[in-house]
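Study the following:
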Amino acid sequence: MSTLVKVARYHMVQPYQYLALTWGILAFTFVVNLVIFGLVPVSHPAAATANGLASAAGTDGRYTGALSCFFIFFLVFGVQSIGKSLPFGLALGVSRRSYYAGTALLAVALAFADGLVLTGLQAIERATNGWGVHMSFFRVVYLLDGPWYLTWLTSSVGLALLFIYGMWFGIVYRRWSLAGTVAFIAAQVTVLLAAALVVTWAQGWTGVGHFFTGLTAAGLTGLLAVLALALLAGGHATIRRATV
């Protein structure tokens, strides 16, 4: 366990990319959206449309969608953690499996820490009626719009999932370069298309629709957690053949 912690700390030698960069860009995005929503009164036609959509979702906020940039950063961090840092990590005498497990530990720790901060900011947003301008920046309809503990869990699982997914991409690129990465993406698209064809052949789209429309945010979080574990296992199996 100490080795895994050391690997996680190794990644944090330059913490600005995991902390200052992500939160700095998110803060800038927040300020820009706050100014825009402050200049557009609720009675404005565009705002009225936004409010109409929000009301249909059961809230009086105006959603920005800008929080997605924060999640995308975790995907990029996952790719970089393997693509750029693996050779030096192995040079320090760490095994591939230990490096992978330690990096995954960092992903989970960052995800739950940042998820907690996002939950706190969402609580402030609720208490201030959308920062005083009816803006929903940290609230996302259906996904991040429930009790604080569910928001924390869902955001944490989502962040960890994207980081782990990015790690697998980084491993594939390390092992098979650009051609392998393209083939990796093509394989995933092929699997999705094959699944769609099977469902179509079985005339099961109605059942699929009923399943997803009846799925709660907690249920979706559970599915994402299972997917994250599957991706974690896939990356673990792939890193054994990763070159440096």
